[in-house]
Amino acid sequence: MWKLKIAEDGPWLSTLNNHIGRQHWEFDRDSGTPEEVAQVEKVRQEFKKNRFRVKQSADVLMRMQLTKENPRGEIPERVVVKEGEEITEEAVTTTLRRAISFYSSIQAHDGHWPSESAGPLFFIQPLVIALYVTGGLNAVLSSEHQKEIKRYLYNHQNEDGGWGLHTEGESTMFGSALSYIALRLLGEGTEDGEDMAIARGRQWILDHGGLVAIPSWGKFWVSVLGIYEWSGCNPMPPEFWLLPKIFPIHPGTYIISLINEYKILYLYKVWILLIEEIGFLCETQIHIQSECKVLY
């Protein structure tokens, strides 16, 4: 059973602040009562059944754990005020108590409120690609982690077979290609997945132009994997870093709200593009290259 660890040490982790604010999941197959395991499976099946209608998980598994760790008694019933009705002091008080009770029940022991990095559907796939090409996929990701990554990607596949840029988005080549590739690298076969999920994902990619239609960030990652030519990537001149920061094309000014992310992305992409090395393709990479009809 999975358990969310808050401000705790663990394998592969290092810290300079005693893990303050850190949250990570660990799997312990011996933890959890049969009733708790059954409840988790029920929640999973409910999400899967309704995944096209409600696409956010709402951190249900995390809330189940934290609510158990923070017993606060019953949360007051919701107050419904109909149109035209007077809002009473009792209604306001009950609503405030309801809110306080709820948020108290999902607060971590160190005081912060954990949450999923929900929305973007392009974080986990590059990790899988990077671990694959460096030979660390099975060393870093346990079989349980790989199982959950596959479950996550299948659960967020759209009805048309593709994947979006984010969990609620319409299918895009970027989201579809990276998700398809990640699933294949994790061992899924060409016809695997419920209702031929892998085959439907591949068909969406082929129907929309193949990997050649993937945008810049996607071209970078499929080039890292070795199934696309580096010459097909947009140039990212390292000399841009030498420009004064008043220039709008200086990498350090990209999208202020995501400035650190974009700086890091640009830096490592420039570095890898300068190297542009990839070893011999293995059988899986050759198959993916053929399946997605890479043209360059």
Count of spatially separate domains:
2
Percent in strands: under 5%
Q: Could you give the order of the helices and strands?
A: EEHHHHHHEEHHHHH
End-to-end C-alpha gap: 45 Å
* Spatial order of strands in the largest sheet: 1-2
User: Would you identify the regions where 5 or more consecutive residues have pLDDT less than 50?
Assistant: 256-260
CATH class of the largest domain: Mainly Alpha
Name the shape in a single word.
globular
How many beta-strand segments?
A: 4
Instruction: Label the structural class.
Output: mainly alpha
Named at the architecture level, the CATH assignment of the largest domain is Alpha/alpha barrel
The pLDDT mean sits at 85
Helix content: 40-55%
The count of helical stretches stands at 11
Largest sheet: 2 strands, antiparallel
Verbal overview:
By secondary structure, this protein is mainly alpha-helical. The protein folds into 2 domains: 2-69, no CATH class; 124-291, Glycosyltransferase, CATH 1.50.10. The protein contains 11 helices and 4 strands, in the order ββααααααββααααα. A hairpin with a 6-residue loop joins strand 3 (163-164) and strand 4. Helix 4 (124-133) crosses helix 7 and helix 7 (173-185) crosses helix 8 (197-207). The longest helix is centred in the first third of the chain and has 17 residues, at 89-105.
